[in-house]
Design goal:
With 318 residues, the protein is an alpha/beta fold. The chain has a domain of 206 residues: Spore Coat Polysaccharide Biosynthesis Protein SpsA, Chain A, CATH 3.90.550.10. The protein is built from eleven helices and 13 strands. The longest helix has 17 residues.
């Protein structure tokens, strides 16, 4: 069984199409939990209409926090939904955003990829968005070694072993690196049937793209990214619009956090692993560095989860 946890805040304009996209999936045996994170528009009425005719859709209503919160707020909303489900009842879970248009076989094909390689702990397709001037679909920047934050598809066993999501900026990078550290694989696949439309480009939903780029740099600092890798990452971003200003904003976000002596992710073993992996990325390229990490960390992999001291096996039928 699969549990989809979807958080929404004032998404009335996109809600119907996004829900229909999730409901049209070919994968069966799916439980859907929608967390209304304090919406003040027509979102509650739309969700009530869907919940009234779909027995497998459950709505969790949270109080208005005064606006959307990225990072900690996103994770908190996800857990508000996950807490209403029995973890032992399902083998897979997905943190899903409400501003996506998914191809109909999206989850079915992700399941196939994971069943073919038991070490894949989290995976996703690739996000595309409609270019505001040209009106054509454009890919968002996303490495093959990560699952994207707007659709995190997980084996339950892997999710439990990494300790779930960290309620902080860069939660959607920390989780993938923790997977790798523990011997799991994190992957995203660029195939036509796994490409989905992101109705709001990444980093544009809270204060615009400039604030989003600065926030990304601060998140990289929190995660533990070093100065050399951060400089290379910002330079790479000049290949994608907004080129120079966007790259400078990312670099400034990291530098400002450094000058402020902002807090960092407290797991020192994780930060050491991350620095070693990032050094290999600079030296070998991401593809070879990821393959090297997968081999090096393989002895740590354990495809079981612990629940009250009892091992639980994955891969049950849906």
């Amino acid at each position: 069984m699969v549990s989809l946890v979807i958080a929404t805040f004032n998404h009335a304009r996109l809600l119907g199409d996004a829900l229909d996209s999730a409901l049209a999936q070919t994968l069966r045996g799916v439980e859907i939990v929608v967390v209304d994170d304090g919406s003040t528009d027509e979102t509650p009425a739309i969700l009530a209409e869907y919940a009234g005719r779909l027995p497998y859709l459950r709505v969790v209503r949270r109080t208005d926090r005064g606006g959307r919160q990225v990072g900690p707020g996103v994770v908190e909303a996800f857990y508000a939904g996950l807490e209403t489900a029995r973890m032992e009842d399902f083998d897979y879970l997905c943190k899903l955003d409400m501003d996506l248009d998914l191809p109909v076989r999206y989850f079915e094909l992700l399941m196939q990829r994971m069943e073919s390689d038991p070490r894949i702990g989290t995976t996703s397709g690739k996000p595309w968005f409609v270019h505001p001037q040209r009106g054509t679909l454009v890919p968002e920047v996303c490495g093959d070694e990560m699952s994207v934050g707007m659709t995190k598809f997980y084996r339950r066993t892997c999710f439990e072993q990494i300790g779930g999501f960290v309620p902080a900026l860069m939660w959607d990078g920390i989780d993938c690196h923790r997977c790798r550290m523990l011997g799991w694989k994190a992957r995203s696949f660029d195939e036509p049937e796994l490409r989905f439309v992101h109705l709001r480009p990444m980093g544009s939903s809270d204060g615009g793209w400039l604030r989003g780029r600065i926030r990304h740099g601060r998140g990289q600092y929190f995660m533990g990214t070093g100065p050399l890798y951060m400089a290379a990452s910002a330079l790479f971003r000049t290949l994608h619009p907004p080129r120079v200003v966007g790259a400078a904003a990312i670099g400034w976000g990291w530098l400002a956090a450094l000058l402020e002596r902002a807090p960092r992710y407290e797991d020192r073993e994780f930060r050491r692993f991350l620095r070693e992996y990032q050094f290999d990325c600079l030296l070998l390229g991401k593809r070879r560095a990821t393959a090297r990490a997968d081999v090096r960390q393989a002895p740590r992999w354990c495809g079981r989860a612990q629940n009250d001291g009892q091992p639980l096996q994955t891969g049950g039928s849906l």
